[in-house]
């Protein structure tokens, strides 16, 4: 059952990247992230009450709460970096780097959770790493550049924080219902996101957001909430070193829609890189 939730997470995560990219075209990425988190928070707590898990709040241990809060902080940092990277970079380049957090997650799962690194996992790590490298390489004949290389730094930071999120989240939901754990983490992300908005003085830009951007921001919030609920449900009962790679297959959804919506085409080298990433990810299911 956990594998079904993992693939569900991948589907919704892929849709999130496209919807968010549409929503931040004319909106500050930090403001958009903060607004999206409100939708995610509402969605998450609605699921808690539907499942009748709100009564478990009083039984949460301090260790569990600490790891949930740390996981929320890492998630917030990952989001802020990821959507800033999406705003200034191409989806087809930003997404592979973010998904390469799979490698770091497997290493951290080995070091901190004792999950073994088998030969298959080792091969998968090389395939995913090599595929990511091919996808972010500058293509011959392509002269259009993103705004400097700032997108690369933000994308790498997003991957690092995403890896920490998975490990901290895995520990945090061991003694708690995954739906309730997700809702608690979302509170932390919301606070963090709005702190960044006010620190950067971008709160006044909210009233300048057009109706279309509002629509995409809200929709991306719902797909994010759905992805989170599926992801942490899968993470609660499945191994982190396998759940995380399945979730990263959202790259197929993202790149497919990026072609349809933004007309971002894959060149031969990028297509080969994507093939390596997918093969490496699927190998982890063996």
Structure description:
The protein has 286 residues and is mostly helical. The protein has one domain (2-54, 69-138, 147-283). 77% of the residues lie in helices and 0% in strands. The protein contains twelve helices and no strands. The chain has helices at residues 2-23, 29-51, 62-88, 91-99, 101-112, 119-136, 150-172, 178-199, 211-237, 240-247, 250-262, 268-283. Helix 6 (119-136) packs antiparallel against helix 12 (268-283). The protein is globular, with a radius of gyration of 18 Å. Residues 140-146 have low confidence and may be disordered.
Short synopsis of the structure:
The chain has helices at residues 2-23, 29-51, 62-88, 91-99, 101-112, 119-136, 150-172, 178-199, 211-237, 240-247, 250-262, 268-283. By secondary structure, it is mainly alpha-helical.
Descriptive keywords:
transmembrane; 286 residues; EamA_dom; mainly alpha; EmrE-like; membrane; transmembrane helix
Question: How are the secondary structure elements laid out?
Answer:
Blueprint: H1 2-23, H2 29-51, H3 62-88, H4 91-99, H5 101-112, H6 119-136, H7 150-172, H8 178-199, H9 211-237, H10 240-247, H11 250-262, H12 268-283
Helix pairs in contact: 1-9, 1-10, 1-11, 2-8, 2-9, 3-7, 3-8, 4-6, 4-7, 4-11, 5-7, 5-10, 6-12, 8-9
Domain EamA: 2-136, 150-285
Protein name: EamA domain-containing protein
Pfam families: EamA
């Amino acid at each position: 059952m956990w594998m079904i939730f993992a693939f569900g997470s991948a589907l919704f995560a892929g849709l999130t990247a496209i919807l968010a990219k549409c929503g931040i075209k004319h909106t500050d990425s930090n403001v958009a992230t903060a607004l999206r988190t409100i939708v995610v928070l509402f969605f998450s707590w609605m699921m808690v009450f539907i499942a009748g898990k709100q009564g478990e709040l009083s039984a949460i241990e301090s260790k569990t709460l600490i790891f949930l809060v740390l996981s929320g902080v890492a998630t917030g940092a990952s989001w802020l970096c990821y959507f800033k990277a999406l705003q200034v970079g191409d989806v087809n380049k930003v997404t592979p780097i973010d998904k390469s957090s799979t490698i770091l997650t497997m290493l951290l799962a080995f070091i901190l959770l004792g999950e073994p690194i088998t030969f298959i996992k080792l091969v998968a790590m090389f395939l995913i790493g090599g595929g990511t490298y091919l996808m972010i390489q500058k293509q011959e004949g392509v002269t259009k550049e993103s705004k400097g290389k700032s997108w690369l730094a933000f994308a790498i930071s997003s991957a690092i924080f995403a890896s920490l999120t998975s490990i901290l989240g895995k520990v945090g939901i061991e003694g708690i219902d995954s739906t309730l754990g997700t809702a608690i983490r979302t509170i932390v992300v919301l606070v963090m996101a709005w702190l960044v908005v006010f620190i950067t003085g971008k709160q006044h830009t909210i009233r300048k957001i057009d109706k279309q951007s509002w629509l995409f921001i809200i929709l991306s919030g719902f797909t994010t909430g759905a992805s989170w609920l599926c992801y942490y449900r899968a993470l609660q009962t499945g191994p982190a070193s396998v759940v995380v790679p399945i979730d990263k297959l959202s790259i197929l959804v993202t790149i497919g829609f990026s072609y349809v919506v933004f007309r971002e085409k894959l060149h031969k080298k990028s297509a080969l890189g994507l093939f390596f990433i997918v093969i490496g990810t699927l190998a982890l299911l063996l």
